[in-house]
Amino acid sequence: MEDQYLDRGFSVLVLAIAVHALVFLLWKISKRSVDSEEEARFPRGPKGWPIVGNLPLLVSLPHRQLAELYFKKGYGAIIGLRLGTHRAVVVSDAARAREILLTHDKAFANRVPLTFVSEIFYGPERSVIFGAHTHRWMQLRKVYTLQLLTTKRLYEMREARYSEGRRLLRRLRDRSGTIVEPGTLIAEMNAAAMARLILSKTLDEVAPDMPQLMRSVQSKATPTIGDFIAYLSFTDAIFKMRMKRLHRRLNAALDSILEERSHLISRLPADQLPDDFLQVLLSVKTDDSEESTLTPADIKAIMSDLFLAGIDTSASTLEWAMAELIRKKECLLKLQKELDEAHKGKSDYLTDEDVKDLPYLYNVVKEVLRLHPVVPLLVPRISSTETTVEGYLLPRGTIAFVNVWAIARDPKIWDRPEDFCPERFETSTRDMKGQDYELLPFGSGRRMCLGIRLGMSMVTVTLANLIRFFDWEPALGKGVKSIDMGEENGLGSAMEHPLKCTPHIRKEFVNAFLT
């Protein structure tokens, strides 16, 4: 009922926007024009619409639309855009990406201040993913790198992930020969695994709505008109109400987690408390002062970052991997053969140690992330100082998009860039650690994804087990052409329609992973 009431407000917005269009035109007439030399030194780009400029390019699959400007419409590898009242550039080749992410990393260290960060999350001062580059942000980042996502801590907590992986395999064994949606099942496994890493319990016990909440957050965490045209921010009222409502649900779920832990702390001595991420967050110091403990809002912001990044991103990557392998059976069989030969006679769940020296497995993952990067445009940055890139003058406040999707499909770099071909990495030393700018699924520089180690572990171990213990085919009665490879619109990369396929437990593993 509330949504229906809110939707009726759109009719009012149409008239309001028309009125403000006139106001905008009058404002433009009276506004001092930009210095002609500065304008001439800004990268050229497509002509924009009145008021909104090039914003329509960001409405539907923006990485594809912006790549088309580079590949097909004759614009350069650095393209100038006008997004409402803001200037922006999009870079679509490796050399310019290196300029933004390495040479001018400090100048472009800030995130674009977006409404959803304040309305859904806990503000830019607390979010490590979306937050501004401040001293506080650097302190919070150290919490991740020195306390949460260290090699030692992930190793100590590996069994929580493995036990959820075994449970996934048992679920698939019980549904052998029937149609499943692997992406959905993997997301559920990830949610349970992340919960055990963060709070030593499954979400069913303390916050059962969290997986659905994270999916809602991903769909609602998009820029608004007011982010680019400040004087039209009044049009965001409906979206802000929805964001606030989502935040209340998210906050209640996270509060329930903190309350449950508070009760546990009151009952148990310190040496009997769980050694998990939450307990670390409750005790960590951000500096040497006594007042430097994290606030409840800080802890909830970090938990929401972890759940957001840890549930659907690796699930989407694995869903793409399964789709590509099922469509190209020879690659699936080659990977299965590598796994069988490396672990002949073993029927246990494969672990990080088991998969670390399997080159074709890692080539498959690289190729999936080349074709389907987690965030195709990366999370946009904004310059804090005037910057010169490739001779172009980028004023302070320029938004920068790095189109890693386009870079990974550039025919100047990649042979047959549209084809799924893991073998291309057999003769290539390119890696995904942020130093090879032709392949940047996790970004680079000081804003590079902090969870790369955990994410890669979850993807490689899960994929190895899915391929080792099961044979896979398209949904019953359908061929590989029935697999829809369309993309869902949004900041991340996900399949538009869930992959449906059929697992068949390999006969030698019918009684495996029972415990």
From TrEMBL:
Molecular function GO labels: heme binding; iron ion binding; monooxygenase activity; oxidoreductase activity, acting on paired donors, with incorporation or reduction of molecular oxygen
Transmembrane segments: 6-27
Pfam families per the UniProt record, alphabetical: p450
Cofactor: heme
Ligand binding (heme): C449
Alphabetically ordered keywords of this record: Heme, Iron, Membrane, Metal-binding, Monooxygenase, Oxidoreductase, Transmembrane, Transmembrane helix
Matches recorded under InterPro entries: Cyt_P450 (IPR001128), Cyt_P450_CS (IPR017972), Cyt_P450_E_grp-I (IPR002401), Cyt_P450_sf (IPR036396)
UniProt family annotation: Belongs to the cytochrome P450 family.
Name of the protein in question: Cytochrome P450
Species: Ceratopteris richardii (Triangle waterfern)
